[in-house]
Design brief:
heterodimer; A: Rossmann fold; 2 domains; 15 helices; 49% helix; B: mainly alpha; flat; disordered C terminus; binds S-adenosylmethionine
């Protein structure tokens, strides 16, 4: 093989035709679930909205629309990962081609990738099978490619790198004018690369508890010619000096952490921020739709193995952030105002920002 | 945690959406799926055998066709319609008007005939 051939060799999992078609089939069912099944549930739930979340679950549990909705929400995601042409078996079978990509990638600019072989991944990560991905992102190296493929077509900013820059990173950079940025829970580094794109002069650091995704984040950053430093650390205990950063950001991290850990992580973020630095949380921090919205969100959290997404919406960020030494707390919800529910099932995201005092 | 939240979480812990009464609806969906998949598999098998026997395609040609742009466009339009076809029967299990009540209606049914 010539050097030119080698340079164009794919560094991603290659999904065979059957897998692509199968994933497309699952997407078709999911599209129906998020539009039609969701709307049927909304119609059935409306007369019961005054009754509270437990009554909604008990009463709607007997109704076909919600039974189907709940079944689809849980099982389609499992088909996506572990069905016959699910991402896990298909990508695991490519380990022999994929793992060298991570290994060779780690040899380029090795000083930019700091893994800790003694690092203990928190139980709240290892116990969950987050998003119903068995083993999630931390257990096997090929899981990094599974995570990358699984989130490629994801809704909102997570799947669209252009939107991720414009709707997430650029506003934060404008707000904080950063020289040093820390991206907490960076996974495969999409959010870190977006921050680097929005602030090319800044020093960008990404951290995560999971080694496989960090390895892949490093490969992707090097491929794109971006100088980003990745390290294996928990947002709860960072190996950075006090006042090191102007912007500490997180894109879809906190719904994977229990409230006690979030409280510690908020204090740790304050420690590594300079006075006047900005802390940003982009996550499902608030749900629209009053009691019905809260009830559906609880079901989502349980069914999609994101248990901490439920307490997240009841966390009082204003109080937590102020107690940790932040001021100027702002929460902007990307969802219909008031008690209205979105027209189809979606992730309702919120951006919380606070300034270190 | 309030009692209400505790009750909600206990209910969600089982994560078993279906109770007995709806098994038949689910079966409708499964059978629809089985039918779609079986027909499709048979069509693909028949076509592939015919084309290979005629020397028209080989494995490489099939792989190329799978990556074709028009093929991707077809898949994108099919994925939604396929989902709709499979799952619609669950929410609307009976597409045809139920006329059982008319059996009681002497003006629309010849009661003499029914009695016979
Ligand atoms: C949904 S992913 C984040 C996506 C990523 N920011 C992006 O934009 O692509 C959540 C990540 O948080 C990581 N995580 C969970 N707990 C963490 C903690 N205590 N500290 C740092 N990362 C954590 C998980 O390993 C996972 O990779």
């Amino acid at each position: 093989m010539s050097a030119a051939d080698k340079a164009t060799e794919p560094t991603r999992a290659v999904l065979p035709f059957e897998c692509k078609v199968y994933q497309s089939y699952i997407r078709g069912l999911k599209a129906w679930w998020k539009d039609e099944a969701y709307r049927a549930v909304m119609a059935d739930a409306a007369p019961l909205a005054g009754k509270g979340v437990a009554a909604l679950e008990a009463e709607l549990g007997k109704v076909p629309s919600y039974q189907l909705y709940g079944w689809l929400e849980r099982h389609l995601q499992q088909f996506k990962y572990v069905g016959r042409w699910g991402l896990v078996p298909v990508i695991a079978a490519q380990s022999a081609e994929l793992l060298p990509i991570l290994k060779q990638g780690a040899e380029r600019f090795p000083e930019r990738l700091k893994l800790d072989p003694n690092f203990k991944v928190p139980d709240y990560v290892t116990d969950v099978d987050t998003h119903q991905h068995p083993g999630s992102t931390w257990s096997d190296d090929y899981d990094a490619f599974v995570h990358e493929s699984a989130t490629a077509g994801f809704s909102f900013t997570l799947g669209d790198s252009e939107q991720l820059v414009e709707r997430y990173a650029r506003p934060l950079v404008e707000l904080s004018q950063p020289r040093d940025i820390l991206d907490l829970g960076c996974a495969t580094g999409k959010s870190s690369r977006a921050l680097k794109t929005a602030a090319p002069q800044a020093n960008v650091f990404g951290c995560d508890v999971s080694a496989p995704v960090l390895r892949l984040a490093h490969v992707r950053a090097v491929e794109e010619g971006m100088h980003i430093e990745f390290s294996q650390q928990s947002a709860e205990k960072l190996n950075f000096a006090d006042g090191r950063f102007d912007l500490v950001a997180s894109h879809w991290l906190y719904h994977e952490m229990p409230p006690q850990a979030i409280r510690i992580a908020i204090r740790e973020a304050r420690r590594v921020l300079r006075r006047g630095g900005v802390f940003a949380i982009y996550d499902m921090c608030a749900v629209p739709g009053g009691v019905v919205g809260e009830w559906l969100h609880a079901g989502y959290a349980a069914r999609n193995n994101e248990p901490f997404a439920y307490p997240l919406v009841n966390l009082d960020f204003e109080t937590e952030l102020r107690a940790a030494g932040f001021g100027d707390v702002k929460l902007e919800v990307h969802a219909p105002p008031g008690d209205r529910m979105p027209a189809s099932r979606t992730h309702y995201m919120a951006m919380v920002t606070a300034v270190a005092q | 945690m309030t009692q209400e939240h505790e009750a909600l979480i206990s209910a969600l812990e089982t994560q078993d959406a279906f109770k007995d009464a709806t098994t038949s609806r689910l079966l409708g969906t499964i059978v629809a799926l089985g039918g779609e998949v079986f027909v499709l598999k048979a069509q693909v098998e028949r076509l592939t055998r015919a084309l290979q026997a005629a020397g028209v395609v080989d494995a490489a040609a099939l792989a190329r066709a799978g990556e074709d742009k028009a093929m991707s466009a077809w898949i994108a339009s099919e994925e939604r319609q396929f989902g709709e076809a499979l799952l619609r029967p669950f929410l609307q299990p009976d597409q045809v008007k139920n006329v059982a009540a008319m059996m009681r209606d002497n003006t629309s049914v010849d009661s003499a005939q029914v009695k016979k």
